[in-house]
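Let's practice the habit of predicting before peeking. Look at the sequence and jot down your guess about where helices and strands might fall. Then scroll down.
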Amino acid sequence: MWERKNTSITGTTVNISESVLNIRNWSIGNYTIKLGAMDTHTSKDIKEYDIEKGLNYLEYDTIEGTRIRITSDTMPLFFSTTKYKDRYDFEFEYLFLKEKYTFRLTSSDIIEYIPYTRHGFKAHFVTGGNWIDFEEKFAGLKATDYTITKINDYNYDVTINSKGNKKFNFMSLGGLNKVEEHYLIQLGSVIDVFAYDEDTTDGINITVTYGSQVVHGKANQIAARLVNITQDVTSIELNSTGYGAETKTIAVTTNSHNLSFNMTPVSAIKIYFYDEITTGLISDTFSVYLRTTGFSNVYTGITDNPNTIKNLGTGIYESKISSTDYPEREFFNINVSNISTAILNAYLLNSSDSSEITFHVLDSDSEDLEDVSIDFFRTLNGTITLIAQEDTDYSGKSRIYLDTNYEYTINFTKSAYEQKIINLEPTFADSPYTIYLDSNVTSPPPLIDNYRISSYEDYFSNLTYINATKTVSFKWYDPYDYADNWCLYVIDSNTTYYENCSILESSSMSYIITGDNRTYTAKSIARKNDRDYIVDIIPINLFRHIAELGRDILIIDWVVFITLGFLGLNNPIAALVMGVMALSGMYVMGMLPIGLSTIMGLIFVVLVIAVGIGKAKKQ
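Done guessing? Here is the structure:
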């Protein structure tokens, strides 16, 4: 794009006329603006031009990039052009004398005529980066001898009075003194964005992001404005509090766009109220009860269908929905997230088209089952559709209005019980319907003494104690997971010395007794559903090996101890010694629940007493 400035040079002062470049209607894209300043005459040095010579014209393909042709309307006898350092001249000579001769000036660029009154040059023109003037050297032509006629922007006619001359030598065609600056500009589109709630169509506040641009718009008042968008196809991000973030792809085709987008609420439930029989949307006033952990609320006077309940917390909700003519129905497991709107298709049945049906759910022992989930399905428009959900109360009962002229598929589920599915065309006369659920929990085998068996086919455990190493060992094998944990305990009457449990189906564990107590108890435990079953018990006496001497020898020992005790009646010291010996014997045989240190303490006390008695007798 080229913008020429008209100039006037007076001394060293340059006056440039102002010009406004209107780019309002330009297409988006990248542009180069060339700003040039030049005088209207000769560059000091020019390079050679390519010159074409025709029958009556000279054509210059200039180094400045302009193609210039000078054509005589009269066939010349002779014509030529000569190059000088800073210009070309051009000469035409004719056979016959005419009063006037005309020359057509043609250029590939726009031609601008510079009047004689401005610069004092006769028939002076500027085109592209070149100038041309028809200043004649020898014919003595004056300014009044020239007539300039504009044909169009690219063609001018120059007519001269011959004044008796048949030969004309015009002085110059050359390059301009020029300084040029190039400015790169990028014209982008301005994009105004408005956002609306997709349900209510109300305007909403919005934030739009494009690259580093983050702009804000106010509902129905101020657009979020992006500027200088130059890509043909681009993406923008939309965000608004309470609505899901969205990315929109737009085609940028003009220098301005006004865009509107609908946004989906999040942390919200959108409820469609359908008539179960007609499957059409109901026109009525509804009441909606919503509940989740830490939250419950009743929304009344709802007339919009569908209706969106917003500003909810995330979580799993249950709902109860009713109206004047439509009895209450429940719906469970409504997942409200901060990503999208939860959709609830609530099918309701007009009380005039239905009867209240009761279901009574029992276990195999005819006990009432509370909190049994009941899902009701019906084929609507060829699709099996969930139309209601209920839970049984503390008495095992649930009541719901159903169409007595249609068959439902009803699903009963409860943790730890077998699922039951029935197909039923309910009637009021047969209500209540009794439903039995069987337990699906397999009871573990008795985990008491008979739990320990010798076969590895089902399960096995073994608890042992080796006195020589004072080691308690427990092994088990439980491939069918009859028990949740297998445990080993080593205790006495007051203290637990070892406690360890494992979830492995097959393993072992052991414990070495290091205490100085004489008696311990080792127990193996099978734990199922947080209940402990004793599998085996071993009482441990660290001196049990004494029993290997035999019962008869122990009886003899006791007789000896007692006899020595009686003999000591006449001698207190002997009595003390005999008593200590008797206690020691009982400890060795495991008949005293005391430790070795206690026995040693008693012996020390007896010795002190015996020494005291001996000293008393000597005195």
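How did you do? The longest strand covers residues 167-187.
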